[in-house]
């Protein structure tokens, strides 16, 4: 599956500042159209949206950031990469773009960021799409509760100390890195994996390659997911909301586990044959469902 040839130029690289960090984003042009923000997931990057952006740019002014610690954005030294920091970065970017209301599409971590932003600023968002962006399932949260706080804290401290000693894995060639990409998601075509690798890897001085994301983004928070706060924010969302899930993913169905009921105007769509990366695994179906939802 190649990036569609639209006959148009590709995205322009731009930057903005948030908490003294220089962060990168892509601007796909078409500024006379309504704004659309695409927010990637953890250890991913803005170019993972290229297939989606190439299609939706016909009807939207598409903006896609690299989150802090990801892609071509700065790493946050001393940060735990908390969700609210990412939300702040999105707020800063949209303040720079300064066009409201905006439509937002987010995947995984990016979906959580998108829903949090929308709950904080419901008047600024026209529609929001979250691909598996509700955080851990209720069953996972219950299992976390079985671990005492001091044990979670100790595990986190040890994990951070381990990450401080860890060195990024280096690949001799881009082909080797692309093979690792397909190991992580076997549903990717060779062409998809190559595209994601070319934009997601940096070449080192010795000629080897490493992933661009900061290893510290791997850390799992020692704090329990705050279900009360999340449901409060979801309940504040007034715009139409689309919750997308792959039927072959680890994520549970929000229409069954009760989380979908927290939204006042949400539709849940389960995409057959897709795992966690629905927009990669079933691109055409994702675009069909999303375009139908967005009314374009």
What's the architecture, going by CATH? 3-Layer(aba) Sandwich
Oligomer: single chain
Q: Write down the overall mean pLDDT.
A: 95
Strand order of the largest sheet: 1-2-4-3-5-6-9-10
CATH superfamily: Alpha/Beta hydrolase fold, catalytic domain
Roughly how many Å is the radius of gyration? 19 Å
Spatial separation of the terminal alpha carbons: 23 Å
Which runs of at least 5 residues are low in confidence (pLDDT < 50)?
A: none
| CATH class division | Alpha Beta
CATH topology: Rossmann fold
Helix content: 25-40%
Largest sheet: 8 strands, mixed
Tell me the fraction of residues in β-strands, as a range: 15-25%
| Topology, number of strands | 10
The domain tally reads 1
Order of helices and strands: EEEHEHEHEHHHHEEHEHEHH
**Dominant shape:** globular
What is the count of helical runs? Answer: 11
Task: Give a written overview of the molecule.
The protein has 296 residues and is an alpha/beta fold. It has one domain (12-294): Alpha/Beta hydrolase fold, catalytic domain (Rossmann fold), CATH 3.40.50.1820. Helix content is 38%, strand content 19%. It has eleven helices and ten strands. The chain has helices at 50-56, 83-97, 109-120, 138-145, 149-165, 174-184, 190-200, 227-236, 254-257, 278-281, 283-294; strands spanning 12-18, 21-27, 35-39, 61-65, 102-107, 125-131, 201-203, 209-211, 241-246, 266-271. An eight-stranded mixed sheet has the order 1-2-4-3-5-6-9-10, sandwiched between helices. Helix 1 links the parallel strand 3 and strand 4. Helix 2 (83-97) packs across helix 3 (109-120), helix 3 crosses helix 8 (227-236) and helix 6 crosses helix 7. The longest helix is centred in the middle third of the chain and has 17 residues, at 149-165. It is globular, with a radius of gyration of 19 Å.
């Amino acid at each position: 599956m190649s990036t569609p040839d639209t006959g148009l130029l590709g995205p322009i690289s731009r930057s903005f500042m948030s908490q003294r960090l220089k962060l990168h984003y892509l601007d796909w042009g078409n500024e006379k159209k309504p704004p659309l923000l695409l927010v990637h997931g953890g250890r991913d990057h803005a170019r993972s949206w290229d297939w989606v952006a190439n299609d939706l740019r016909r009807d939207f002014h598409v903006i896609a950031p690299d989150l802090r610690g990801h892609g071509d954005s700065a790493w946050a030294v001393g940060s735990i990469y908390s969700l609210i920091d990412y939300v702040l970065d999105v707020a800063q970017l949209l303040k720079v773009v300064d066009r409201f209301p905006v439509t937002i599409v987010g995947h995984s971590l990016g979906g959580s960021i998108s829903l949090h932003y929308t709950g904080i600023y419901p008047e600024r968002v026209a529609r929001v799409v979250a691909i598996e962006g509700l955080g851990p399932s209720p069953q996972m949260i219950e299992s976390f509760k079985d671990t005492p706080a001091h044990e979670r804290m100790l595990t986190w401290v040890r994990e951070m100390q381990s990450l401080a000693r860890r060195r990024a894995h280096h690949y001799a060639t881009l082909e080797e890195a692309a093979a690792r990409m397909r190991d992580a998601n076997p549903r990717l075509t060779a062409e998809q994996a190559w595209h994601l690798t070319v934009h997601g890897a940096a070449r080192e001085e010795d000629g080897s390659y490493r992933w661009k994301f900061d290893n510290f983004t791997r850390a799992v928070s020692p704090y329990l997911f705050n279900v009360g706060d999340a449901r409060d924010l979801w309940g504040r969302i007034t715009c139409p909301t689309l919750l997308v899930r792959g039927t072959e993913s680890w994520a549970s169905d929000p229409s069954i586990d009760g989380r979908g009921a927290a939204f006042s105007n949400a539709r849940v769509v389960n995409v057959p044959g897709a795992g966690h990366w629905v927009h990669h695994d079933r691109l055409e179906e994702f675009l069909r469902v999303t375009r139908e939802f967005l009314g374009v």
